[in-house]
Amino acid sequence: MLKSTVLVAGPTMVVLIPMAAAPAMPAMATHFAAGGDGALFAQMVMTIPAVLLILAAPLAGILSERIGRRAVMLLGFAVFVLAGSAGLFVDSPTALIVSRLLLGAAGGAIQTSSLSLVGDYPSGGARERLLGFMVAGSCVMAVAALTVGGHMVDSWGWRAPFALYLGGIPVFILALFSIKPRASQVSREHNLFAPVRLLWPVYLLAAIFTVGMFMPSIQGPFLLDQRGVHSAEIQGSVAAASAVVAAISAFCYGFLIRVISPRRLLMLTAACFGVGAIGMAKLSGATSIGAASALMGIGSGFVEAACATIILARIPEEMRARALGLLLSAIFFGQFLNPWVVAPLRGRFGIEGAFVWIGGGFLVLSLAIALGMVLRESSTSAVRQAHGAPESL
After folding, report:
1. What is the C-alpha separation between 187 and 324, in angstroms, rounded?
2. What is the rounded distance in angstroms from the CA atom of residue 208 to the CA atom of residue 337?
3. CA 165, CA 172: separation in Å to the nearest integer?
4. Is the torsion defined by CA of 143, 147, 149, 150 positive or negative?
5. Which domains does the chain have, with CATH numbers?
6. Where is 91: in which H helix or E strand?
7. Longest dimension (CA), the chain
């Protein structure tokens, strides 16, 4: 029970890496406006940890094979607390960026070791439920970070939410006593990127979906600010609407996966992202925009768990740590890409137009996934009927 708690708490704390900074972005943009584009710098503070996480997650998988997942997890939590809370006192923009990069490396270590340990649970129930609970816990933390963080910004300024990273201390202590050392499993395949040969479509989809997943939290505050909603607490609450619904859908994942394949859940996710993003652009008022944000949350709860399910079903056990590390790299690469994908759209069409273009792209992706499933089912239906095989992941 304690081990399961740590495995849920690990990814839950990692979600603080971007979300604790999200409510502070407008205030941070104002604070650093004198040095150039304050809005872009604020977005980079939120998303720059993804750079190191992209690199650190697969390396953490290799390191887990060498020194053990427990050691990697504990080291990750120690750096997480120190680097995360640095925003409380650093003054230099460069120092702030460096601390955020270290925070990303810590997040990669925590998330990779947690997902790898989940792979030890039996499939067909326990594993999938735990994957869903991990995402659900992350979504609940996102809600808390966005709402509480917004209140902290309004009350004490943009630095205040960085205190949330100190919550990693009790999780570190719990992991110290509940995660037992285990003999390492070194894969015969030494190529770090060997899983890419089998799983590159999954990694590509994960990155694309993450760009859409972070539209409410990264771009939503600027959309609301343009609409005249300047309160960080209200902006955080609108973004939190997506996370609340994502927590519910993720909690249900372990039950839904018994009757709906991961591919169909990803098709549903793309449709929710498309309709939700266009709704955020076209609707007026914080409540209506929050409802559209909540619609996007339906799909957000499925992305990581569905992709992890596909990977765990396809990859040998001794390569799971690095394969899941690469999944995390893809997810955080999508998070890092969000400002760079949206910036040119925002510059040409405005923030509302950017939401419309992103939403349209996901509607096209939903149709493409549906078409791909139809073609796949058509080409394999004869084989399935002959052998009575269940639908493949």
Report:
1. 14
2. 9
3. 12
4. positive
5. 2-177+194-381 (1.20.1250.20)
6. none
7. 69
